[in-house]
Amino acid sequence: MSLPEVLLWRELRRQSEVKFRRQHPIGRYVLDFYCASAKICVEIDGIAHEMGDRARRDAARDEWLGDRGIEVLRIPASDVLKSPSEIVEALMRTCRR
């Protein structure tokens, strides 16, 4: 896992409201984080997601997941590095809705 993913995982494990899995396989993909009860996938996007055909590949992946009822939340790695606890608070609000 990348540093932003490690930081986010540490914060997610501290809260007890919603259960997340990390590196969760589904189909041919591995999701950074997945909340099964809310059917939410959390992807932490670093600079690599802005290069080459990555945007097209990400869109295809998001569509595939969406077709299966899974909402994809893409969070910039820089936001996680700034404040992982704020990201977790936002994720808890999203998962509770």
Automatic annotation (TrEMBL):
It holds the Pfam family DUF559. Residues 3-95 form the DUF559 domain. Keywords: Endonuclease, Hydrolase, Nuclease. InterPro entries: DUF559 (IPR007569), Endonuclease_DUF559_bact (IPR047216), Restrct_endonuc-II-like (IPR011335). It comes from the Bacteria. GO terms for molecular function: endonuclease activity. PANTHER family: BLL0828 PROTEIN (PTHR38590:SF1). This is Endonuclease domain-containing protein.
